[in-house]
Amino acid sequence: ECEAACPKEISIDFISQLNREFLRASVKEERKPLQKV
């Protein structure tokens, strides 16, 4: 469904890779230590 709807025929494998990278970046962002004011 997702692959068929994509106008540039992006493969489902590529979409899943982007999702994994996004999740990794989200986790890393949350782990940053808080800055003391």
Walk me through this protein's architecture.
The protein has 2 helices and no strands. By secondary structure, the chain is mostly helical. The protein has one domain (1-32). The radius of gyration is 16 Å and the shape is rod-shaped. The mean pLDDT is 74.
- The secondary-structure class comes to mainly alpha
Please count the helical segments.
Answer: 2
- Count of beta strands: 0
Q: Catalogue the unreliable spans.
A: none
Fraction of residues in β-strands? under 5%
Descriptors:
37 residues; mainly alpha; 2 helices
Give the topology.
Elements: H1 2-5, H2 12-30
Question: What is the compact description of this entry?
Answer:
This protein is an all-alpha fold and 37 residues long.
